[in-house]
Amino acid sequence: MIRHSFRLALIPLLLAGILITAGKADGYADSSLPIVADQGLYSIEVYPLYHQLIVRAQGQKFKTYRVAVGNPSTPTPAGEYRITYKGENWGPSYGPRWLGLNVPWGSYGIHGTNKPFSIGQHLSHGCIRMNNRDVLELYDLIPIGTKVTIFGHVLGDLRDEPRQLAEGDVGGDVQLIQSRLKSAGYFNGSCNGKFRADTSAALKRFQRDRSLAPNGVVSPKVYEELGLWE
């Protein structure tokens, strides 16, 4: 059986603030190349593969929490972001506290949960779930503006096929497809990570030119034709 891999040479991902390297066997970002400047006393690192959230104080590990992250169909977005909003008591599903992230294609945050059994698993819709006692502690500790680095590969776990995408999907992988289609002259819209009608139309034109079924679905073959998977 042939083992496929992602190809990431010169992928123009700076527009998303996404930080990835092709040479990492685990698909993790190289934290030695920050895109978001370090500011403030604290920073947060999230490792979805290990279900860990680490708080650093002046670069030194300060706190480690067990978390739940997105499932494969709604992954937690890899990249570097900021805490832009803090709120209380959004409802039972979000626990007692919410720390919102500036992800451009949707509402993602770090929050509590009424499903503590999910902690340590890939069971969220993309947000980072914490035990309620832990998110209360984090909320009091972390100011707005704190940098949050979510490690991982924008196309998902390197051991698996990337997501098949279609109209209605959102994510860093959608943004990457938009960027590739734009570079190839097919897409004229905003690379915002939202798979809408304009992205679908551009993809269908690309598929026709590559003698693929123009169904508007990003299949493994489309990833191959865009030079993102082999």
Q: Give the radius of gyration.
A: 18 Å
Number of helices: 4
Question: How do the SSEs run, as a string of H and E?
Answer: EEEEEEEEHEHHH
How much of the sequence lies in strands comes to 15-25%
Shape: elongated
> Spans of 5+ residues with little confidence (pLDDT < 50)?
1-37
End-to-end Cα distance: 13 Å
How many strands appear in the DSSP assignment? 9
Mean pLDDT: 85
Largest sheet: 8 strands, mixed, barrel
Query: In order across it, which strands form the biggest sheet?
Result: 1-2-3-8-6-5-4-9
Helicity range: 10-25%
The helix/strand class is: alpha/beta
Descriptive account of the structure:
The protein is of the alpha/beta class and 230 residues long. The protein has four helices and nine strands, in the order ββββββββαβααα. A hairpin with a 2-residue loop joins strand 2 and strand 3 (60-70).
Summarize the structure.
By secondary structure, this protein is an alpha/beta fold.
Write the layout of secondary structure elements.
Elements: E1 42-47, E2 52-57, E3 60-70, E4 79-88, E5 97-101, E6 108-111, E7 122-124, E8 128-130, H1 132-141, E9 147-150, H2 172-183, H3 197-209, H4 220-225
Parallel strand pairs: 1-9, 3-7, 6-8
Antiparallel strand pairs: 1-2, 2-3, 3-8, 4-5, 4-9, 5-6
